[in-house]
Amino acid sequence: MTVQPGRRERKKAATRQKIADTAMRLFQEHGYDAVGIRDVAAEADVAVTTLFSHFTSKEALVFELDEDFEQRLVRAVTDRAPQEPLIPALRREIHALVRHCTGDDAAPTWQMIDASPALRQYEASMRLRHAESLATAIAADSQADPDPAPDSNPPRTTTTCRTIARFAVDAFSLAREEPDPQAAVDEIFVMIEAAWEAGPLRH
Q: pTM (2 decimals)?
């Protein structure tokens, strides 16, 4: 049974969302570089310290779903059905993330990101962090079978897990730039699955 968040958690989430929505509106209206942290805090009617309790930097205001995306990637591994193969589960989640981030209303945000060196750098570091979290989940999953079948594969190496995680996270960025993002995800995951099956195994 899903536990519903309490009043304090709901209020905190509402404040965070208000700050993020206000920041994006100001960035779109005035340009990312022209808007400061104090401008966002004043417009959202919160203290600067309150803003920083929710977001660690100005760049983080643009990527307000950062932690949610990271958790979704990890849960694609940890929460999938017991007999579901890893790669299809990852492909399904990347499809969902790409759908979320390639709608018509997302275009202005990506144009802003592409035009800002600071935002591009933040996105790159974010992808690396997501890939490391995903790699940790894949490695743990690869070693988690308590009763493996006699002909089952032994756990993958750490390098293999990190490589597959990096490929999966980068698939999102590559696909969103293509005319048909969903078809691009499928094309990329054909190669990811082949790499996973061919990857070195720990004997």
A: 0.86
